[in-house]
Specification:
alpha/beta
């Protein structure tokens, strides 16, 4: 059956093909495509320059402006002003490559971009991201490359290159693009460039890189040829030039290059600077004819954009020579051709062992001198570490499985603990240090104390467990087909089991330390769930309100030297000191401070009354906690939670337990399975007699 016949049948059977194609036509933006595919004359380009001098930006200026288009906000971290650049939240891709907890490192990196954009010297350096494996070094560069691609599609980020009108072997007229996507301004002779720019009201000092650069060998050949053909008539030469909008693209190898070292025997420096096209030597008669050379090395194609060196310090010495010239002089040396100008951001990344080799290698002194190192450590703040895993392990991505509350948190907590250095202060534990770093206030510690803690450590965040290891073990727990709900113990057990075969753990001493930290995390989890169950048991709003009202009546009478009316007998009695102290002791109010605390409560209630507001115990966090713990103590025996351990539960107790379970599902995001598991786990703790209430 012919294709036409098939299409007619499909069309007659509902017209699926035309409807799909027409809907596709409606989705495409032809006008936008035409804007991005713009081409015009050299004079058109000069007129655009007159209207918008930003078209002449160099690679660093364009990169810095791109980051600023996303905006930024100033934050305060332990009295330090931190700038958070929103670009690194990856807003264009719903946070797929978002960077968390590295604002200090990213701020330093962006400041280097700013310095280079202003021509202060860092544009002549190799920017080196240095840190442990899995610390987001490659993600940062990937974000920047994606950002530049997207930016080149916007009106603010537009840039242009050009093609030559030539004749092929058969005499047909074709357009040959500049292989290095150069700025059309390079076609103006160097000695005339400043004069032309002044007529366009463009400041040459802000665009020195573009203004001082010369044509690449390929374009220089055609420029000289046409200059000869037109008897030196420069205007006629540029009349054979078509200016085109250039869209940066890693896949199309336009303005974005990536180089990854191979094994030593296969490394070839021509991968960076291009190589001879031997097939064309026969055509043009010489291997020094630029038409017989492929200017397609990573340095060539990355011109006007960025080049990434993966594991840059594994490069052979021959590559390093090219790298030194490219950074310091902004020039490369293609085989059999003169020094060629480039304009690109050179950024590499490496890990700790390779960087130590660089420091110890005296032959690498020149590279060290031309390198600016930016440390990219592991995250040491728990909240940020949690975000890394929640990005991949959430209800939208994980279907058919429930992740119990605190599962991600406990795994992240262990990861952060492995990266922290032991505190030098005897009264501070490692867990307390983690909480201080995470913004929690502890008695005796201020923001200045936290700053001092960070200043007394040299390598914090440069060692420890990688997020990749945590992600792998969470995945292992999730693929267990026997379980529909994943709890913290399952993940913590996976983490511990994997330590024996972890390739990056150097010594048994490290393994022992990591196991000890897992035990510490399990203790913390025990306190967390114990607290949660206590709050669920004490979550009877009416009972809490009654208890609060009773406490306030007694406190009021106590502070005003009055008596309290017994609601049952109607008799006036002395304030119930036993009741008040049973509540206050839950939040460690000592006997000597009880009067101050009670006056504080009454003053607070009085201030609210003046404003016409009613006191609510939930507005006072300490009092709320004290009331919940008191109510829990009063109710836990009636609920008989410990009976869960023996599996013998009477109907009345089961109903009360079901109420507690429903509260945990509603308020703390448990499912029925993990709520039951947690209640049984906490019941076993109560059965041991451990009923401590503080978190």
């Amino acid at each position: 059956m012919s294709t036409k016949r098939k299409q007619e049948e499909v069309s007659s059977n509902g017209g699926n093909v035309p409807s799909i194609l027409s809907s596709m036509r409606n989705l495409t933006d032809n006008k936008r495509f035409q804007q991005l595919s713009w081409s015009g004359s050299f004079e058109d380009y000069l007129n655009m320059l007159r209207d918008d001098a930003k078209l002449l930006r160099n690679a660093f200026q364009r990169l810095y402006d791109m980051i600023l288009t996303y905006g930024y906000e100033e934050l305060e971290d332990n009295k330090d002003k931190i700038i958070h650049y929103k670009f690194f939240d990856d807003p264009n891709y719903e946070g797929r490559d978002a960077i968390y907890g590295l604002d200090r490192s990213l701020m330093k990196l962006v400041h280097l971009f700013k310095s280079a954009a202003k021509g202060y010297g860092t544009q002549k350096r190799v920017l080196l991201l240095h840190g442990p494996v899995g610390s987001s070094k490659s993600t940062i560069v990937r974000l920047i490359k994606k950002g530049l691609e997207d930016y080149s599609h916007t009106d603010e980020g537009q840039l242009y290159s050009y093609s030559w009108k030539i004749q092929d072997q058969e005499g047909n007229e074709i357009w040959e693009p500049c292989p290095m996507h150069e700025d059309p301004l390079h076609l103006i002779p160097l000695e005339l460039r400043k004069t032309v720019l002044s007529e366009l009201n463009i400041d040459c000092t802000e665009n020195a890189t573009v203004v001082q650069s010369d044509l690449c060998p390929f374009c220089r050949y055609y420029y000289q040829e046409k200059l000869t053909d037109y008897d030196g008539d420069w205007v006629s030469v540029v009349g054979d030039v078509k200016v085109m909008r250039t869209l940066l693209s890693e896949q199309d190898r336009i303005g974005i290059g990536t180089f990854q070292p191979k094994d030593e025997k296969n490394q070839d420096s021509t991968e960076l600077t291009g190589d001879i096209n031997y097939r064309k030597i026969a055509l043009y008669g010489s291997d020094s004819d630029p038409r017989a050379f492929n200017f397609d090395g990573e340095f060539n194609i990355a011109n006007r954009g960025i080049i990434e060196f993966i594991e840059v310090l594994k490069l052979e010495v021959a590559f390093l020579y090219d790298l030194l010239g490219a950074s310091q002089e902004s020039k490369i040396k293609p085989k059999k051709f003169p020094q060629t100008d480039i304009d690109e951001v050179i950024i590499g990344h490496t890990n700790e062992p390779e960087y130590r080799k660089l420091q110890n290698n005296e032959f690498m002194e020149a590279l060290r001198d031309r390198t600016v190192k930016i440390d990219v450590p592991y995250i040491t703040r728990l909240d940020h570490e949690i975000k890394i895993y929640e990005k991949d392990f959430n209800a939208d991505k994980i279907t058919g499985k429930h992740i119990a509350p605190h599962t991600i948190e406990m795994a992240a907590m262990w990861a952060v603990l492995t990266r922290l250095e032991e505190p030098k202060r005897a009264q501070l534990t490692l867990m307390q240090k983690l909480k201080l770093y995470n913004g929690k206030t502890l008695p005796g510690f201020t923001e200045d104390s936290v700053q001092e803690l960070k200043e007394e450590v040299r390598r914090e965040g440069m060692d420890g467990i990688s997020p990749r290891y945590i992600q792998d073990k969470i995945s292992n727990a999730l693929v267990n087909e026997d379980e529909n709900c994943i709890n913290p113990f399952m993940v913590l057990n996976e983490l511990e089991a994997g330590l024996e075969h972890h390739g990056l753990i150097a010594t048994d001493e490290h393994r022992r330390r990591y196991r000890d930290l897992l035990a510490l995390v399990k203790e913390e989890y025990e306190d967390v769930v114990k607290n949660e169950v206590q709050r669920a048991i004490a979550a009877d709003e009416e009972a809490l309100t009654r208890l609060c009202s009773n406490y306030i009546d007694n406190v009021k009478a106590y502070t005003q030297k009055e008596k309290v009316k017994n609601r049952y007998t109607g008799q006036s009695e002395e304030p119930d000191e036993r009741l008040m102290r049973s509540i206050e002791e839950k939040i460690d109010i000592p006997e000597s401070r009880k009067d101050d605390f009670r006056r504080e409560i009454m003053n607070y209630i009085g201030a609210l009354a003046i404003e016409g507001k009613t006191f609510d115990y939930r507005t006072n966090e300490r009092l709320q906690k004290a009331l919940e713990l008191k109510l829990f103590e009063d109710q836990k025996d009636s609920i008989k939670l410990t009976s869960l351990v023996s599996q013998v539960v009477d109907k009345d107790t089961q109903e009360k337990i079901d109420v507690v379970k429903s509260r945990m599902v509603k308020h703390y995001h448990y499912c029925d399975v993990c709520a039951t598991d947690v209640l049984q786990y906490v019941a076993s703790i109560f059965a041991r007699g451990d009923v401590k209430g503080d978190a």
